[in-house]
Write a structure and sequence with these properties.
Helix content is 30%, strand content 16%. By secondary structure, it is an alpha/beta fold. The chain has a five-stranded mixed β-sheet, sandwiched between helices. The chain has a two-stranded parallel ribbon with strand order 1-2. The longest helix is centred in the middle third of the chain and has 15 residues.
Length: 183
């Protein structure tokens, strides 16, 4: 059974685990430059959205998997990276993209040995490998008085949309921007 543990700091501090990591502001600033504030962040909470500034969020109580993403033209996804969870995120995102003309960013751990990563890679229009490991904000670490540590994994930022050149222009200074083989 997959347990969503998003933004539990606000509701159940005892359940916080390694899934509770919020997007770094320097990355979100580039997303805002790219297309303004995202219309939807389907895996978020009020605290995380102070940085992301999505017009609509789905919290753990809303269960983003049960919600309709098709109304949003721009999506931001930094879901929990736990095994089993991110696979479902990629499947729902690809289904949504196949049914709409939405643009989306998906931030995940870099794990090219998995089927879900290959699916995202094959469907995206560009992807970026950050030049450094990201430092996520962790409310658990903040509550414990600990500094925010750099992530121990590398990430991939996938872009799905009709503006691959713009993606390259904005994100080339943040990391290595790559084309997929479909180009």
């Amino acid at each position: 059974m997959i347990i969503q543990q998003l933004c539990l700091f606000e509701t159940q501090p005892s359940l916080i685990d390694s899934n509770e990591n919020y997007t770094p502001s320097d990355l979100i600033d580039l997303v805002h430059e790219f297309y303004g504030f995202p219309e939807l962040d389907p895996f978020s909470c009020e605290l995380a959205n102070r940085t992301v500034k999505a017009q609509k969020i789905f919290t753990i109580q809303d269960d983003g998997f049960k919600q309709n993403w098709r109304r949003a033209k721009t999506l931001w996804l930094n879901p929990p990276y736990s095994a089993g969870f991110v696979e479902k995120v990629v499947d729902k995102l690809i289904q949504t993209l196949n049914e709409t003309e939405a643009e989306a960013f998906l931030l995940t751990n870099t794990d090219n040995s998995t089927a879900w990563y290959k699916k995202a890679l094959n469907r995206c229009d560009r992807f970026c490998l950050p030049s450094t490991r990201l430092t996520f904000y962790s409310p658990k670490r903040a509550a414990e008085g600990k500094k925010q540590d750099q992530n121990r994994f590398s990430q991939t930022l996938f872009y799905f949309g009709l503006q691959p050149q713009r993606f390259e222009e904005i994100f080339e200074g943040w990391g290595t921007v790559c084309q997929t083989s479909k180009w």
